[in-house]
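Annotated sample (chain length 192).
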Amino acid sequence: MSVPGSSPAAIPIAHIERVVVGSTNPVKIAAVKAVLARAGSAARVQGLAVSSGVRDQPFGDAETIRGATQRARAALEMSGADLAVGLEGGVVDEDGLMRTCAWASVVNRDGRVGVGGSLAISLPARVAALVRDGVELGHAMDRVTGGQDTKHGSGAVGILTAGLIDRQRAYEVLVTYALAPFLAPAHYADAS
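Output written by the structure step:
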């Protein structure tokens, strides 16, 4: 997949001072903080409630990417931060099987964008049926498992992997992938 607007970042990751996450979900904010710390950034990270511009439960990779990118752009515009991150979870329903998908989008003030995603895990039939009926994935997991506020905790991935991977750790990978054009800008330089 080609990443529009990907070229060297104006500010190296280690020098970025302020990052905003297009959500107030503590799991998403913690994932961004953890990745930036590993990348050598001491940036101040804050969450900001913004609209994804897509359905509460996005269907398909394209809609989910659009939601993540909208979140990042809206957060950047509202905050004036150096860098903004949008994270969006969705589902893909193909051939009667439903799986999760999740995408991260990183946008800087110059309009450069990095996108990374995956987090594909098949969903149990009972959960998929609820999602097809219009229930958001986190709420569907709560109903099936008797849990509460799954999407602000371990997430479906945490429950379905018996805690081997939780939502934050899964999101850290996506954020890292989306940061690639900013972490290794020379490899993303447009050939002239």
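Annotation: The helical segments are 26-38, 61-79, 125-132, 137-145, 155-160, 167-183.
Annotation: Strands lie at 18-21, 44-47, 83-94, 97-108, 113-118.
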